[in-house]
Design brief:
671 residues; 14 helices; PH-domain like; PH-like_dom_sf; 8-stranded mixed sheet; SSRP1-like_PH1; DNA repair; alpha+beta; HMG_box_dom; transcription
């Protein structure tokens, strides 16, 4: 806390739609100034607007509550007990106000009196102390049903997991002629940021093209909020949630960006939109008309707007939003790129966009859009890209520890951009004390007294790459010179005996030559005998019955007698016909003949059947068998599993592994 003789400064918190924002409260001899560290918004309170000042004990330390004559209430938490004396002295000397100490009810009673005081709803318990207060700016909807009042609140995604969504009050009727719930609802609706439209919009802007959220929307302006109506999505946001307006030219000089920064962000599903980015053609002219009387337009907007206005489309929309929201419009400052533009082409996380160096921060459009204020930046850094020489990176480190990297910035932009960053007083991480005195030209910095070390580093790396290229020899490659052993038959790269090349002295002797080392003899795996396939559960497979060649010939049917007789006729009528076609035609003719013709062949079949039965009986009487089972296959004799024994001479002349020696010894023992 800095405390000059005529000013005080405190680090405090302020509640914004259910979320705590940290900031700085500065009290000077002229006014009271609060700057939000999260959004960067600044609120200034003049002494002439002060009404009442209260000091209260709350959950987060002590609270300073300031009521203004304009109907607004400001609350700042996080004060310590010892700050009361300094604040009392300040308000007593400068605006000539006394701080009143107020106690809150902590008994937990739920019966009392609800009343609207300026821009908040206060509930006072029966003991005369206030139990809680609800800022009307947090109310999104208010309804009454008989003697019940229901309040719905704006939801903030940045707030804690537990947030209040709805609050209800029971208001009994004092008499039949009055409805306290309806009267309270009307009073709250007139002062709260209610998102329910009552009446028609006083202005409609049709088919506005938006990049974020993408699409075309009809923008309808109501008294307390604006409504974006699209083909698939609708968004409503209050004017109090709009914290900044930007009007930025596109790099092609044919379009203009109009950016609306909002807090809390609007949400669609899991996607949050902290910025609404509109795009307008620079040469497009439009005419807009208010759905209000000319006198009403003059009174509401204090002469800033007229009932009928004409001009460039982007200019009309920006003037309208400025008058409705009461926010200033941020435009590009003095920065000019190498191409005399207000922005630089760059990329962020593989998404191409443009970076606007503004007077109080950096604005990047458009995926994802972001606004980085100078007061929240800890340091910046200029770095060379690892794969490109014609571009560089710009790193931004925030005080919260977040790092943003903007890459593929053209090298020609370095001079003007470096001068801009240095002029704004930002801490440059890779600059030394000599560069702080003078920044030389990016291309001609090597011969000056105070060189640009970043530029020299780039030049040295480029020069080193050129030297490496110049030292390379273009003569033909000579394999004999490159590898003399290749010509003389030296060792190959493939090591076929990696075990013998071990460096362990215990595995091989260092003095042993290649010839003295015993060669390992390859073992030949014996073939295992194939197992015989056995049937399941010991049941033998059925063998196919063979045709009995010695038995009588089976009888033919009437159809076969017909085919044997008709086959030659079919072949004669169809020369070169296939056998399958003969059977097909014969079958068709068999189906076409009448019963009298079939009787001839059926009679032949009957006689042939009698012949078969007679010959069969004679064959069986003579001791013959009609069917005979095929003999089962004999099992193949399995090969011997014993391996041939090695001769002692051969065994001693070859090196054997422990496993091989063990198997050999077992064979010799068995012999």
């Amino acid at each position: 806390m800095a405390a000059p003789a005529d000013s005080l400064e405190f680090s405090v918190n302020q509640e914004i739609k259910g979320n705590k924002h940290s900031g700085k409260l500065k009290l000077t001899s002229q006014s009271i100034l609060y700057k939000d560290s999260v959004t960067g918004r600044s609120d200034q309170i003049s002494f002439d607007d002060l009404d009442e000042i209260y000091w209260r004990r709350v959950a987060d330390g002590n609270q300073l509550k300031i009521e203004l004559l304009s109907g607004k209430i400001k609350k700042y938490d996080g004060f310590k007990d010892e700050h009361l004396k300094k604040l009392s002295s300040y308000f007593r000397n400068n605006p000539d106000k006394e701080i009143k100490q107020e106690d809150l009810s902590i008994k937990g009673w739920n019966w009392g009196k609800a009343e609207v005081n300026k821009d908040e709803l206060a509930f006072t318990a029966d003991d005369g102390k206030k139990a809680f207060e609800i800022p009307l700016g947090n109310v999104s909807n208010c309804t009454s049903n008989k003697n019940e009042l229901s309040l719905t609140f704006h939801q903030n995604e940045d707030a804690n997991a537990l947030t209040m969504m709805e609050c209800r009050f029971h208001m009994p009727m004092a008499d039949e002629n009055s409805d306290p719930a309806a009267e309270m609802a009307a009073m709250i609706t007139s002062r709260a940021d209610v998102l329910e439209a009552k009446g028609n919009a006083f202005m409609t802007l049709p088919s506005i093209q938006c990049l974020t959220p993408r699409g075309r929307y009809d923008v309808k302006l109501f008294d307390k909020f604006l409504h974006l109506h699209g083909a698939t999505h609708d968004f409503k946001l209050t004017y109090t949630s709009i914290i900044r307006l930007f009007l930025l030219p596109h790099k092609d000089q044919r379009q203009v960006f109009f950016v609306i920064a909002i807090d809390p962000p609007i949400k669609q599903g899991q996607t949050r939109y902290p910025f609404i980015i509109c795009v307008f053609d620079k040469e497009k002219y439009e005419e807009i008309n208010f759905d209000l009387d000319e006198a009403e337009v003059e009174e509401r907007f204090e002469g800033k707007l007229q009932k009928n206005m004409q001009g460039p489309h982007y200019e009309l929309v920006s003037r309208l939003m400025k008058a409705v929201t009461g926010r200033k419009i941020t435009v590009p400052g003095n920065f000019k790129s190498n191409s005399s533009l207000a922005c630089m082409a760059c990329s962020y996380k593989a998404q191409s966009g443009v970076l606007f160096p503004l007077e109080r921060g950096f604005m990047y459009l458009h995926k994802p859009p972001m606004h980085l204020r100078f007061d929240e930046i800890d340091n910046v850094n200029f770095a060379r890209e690892s794969t490109k020489l014609r571009s560089f990176e710009f790193h931004i480190q925030t005080k919260q520890g977040q790092k943003h990297i903007f890459g593929t910035i053209d090298r020609a932009e370095y001079n003007c951009f470096f001068d801009f960053v240095k002029q704004k007083g930002l801490k440059i991480k890779n600059i030394n004390k000599h560069e702080q005195q003078r920044v030389e030209n990016f291309s001609d910095s090597s011969g000056d007294e105070y060189p640009d070390h970043y530029a020299n580093k780039l030049k040295d790396e480029v020069r080193g790459m050129e030297d490496e290229d110049s030292e390379s020899d273009d003569s033909d490659f000579d394999p004999d010179k490159a590898d003399p052993e290749a010509k003389e038959g030296g060792d190959e790269e493939f090591d076929s005996d990696f075990a013998d090349r071990s460096t362990d002295s215990e595995d091989r002797g260092s003095d042993a030559s290649e010839e003295e080392r015993p060669k390992k003899k390859k073992e030949v795996k014996e073939k295992k005998p194939r197992k015989e396939k056995s049937s399941k559960d010991g049941v033998e497979k059925k063998t196919r019955k063979k045709k009995n060649k010695d038995g009588p010939k089976r009888a033919m049917s009437a159809y076969f007698f017909f085919i044997n007789e008709e086959r030659e006729n079919i072949k004669r009528d169809n020369p070169g016909i296939k056998v399958t076609e003969v059977s097909k035609i014969a079958g068709e003719r068999w189906r076409e003949i009448n019963a009298n013709d079939k009787a001839k062949y059926e009679e032949k079949a009957l006689k042939d059947k009698e012949r078969y039965e007679r010959e069969k009986a004679e064959f069986i009487a003579a001791g013959g068998e009609m069917t005979k089972a095929a003999p089962a296959k004999k099992q193949k004799k399995s090969a011997s599993s014993k391996s041939p024994t090695k001769s002692p001479a051969k065994a001693s002349s070859s090196a054997k592994s422990a496993e091989f020696v063990a198997s050999s010894s077992s064979d010799s023992d068995s012999d």
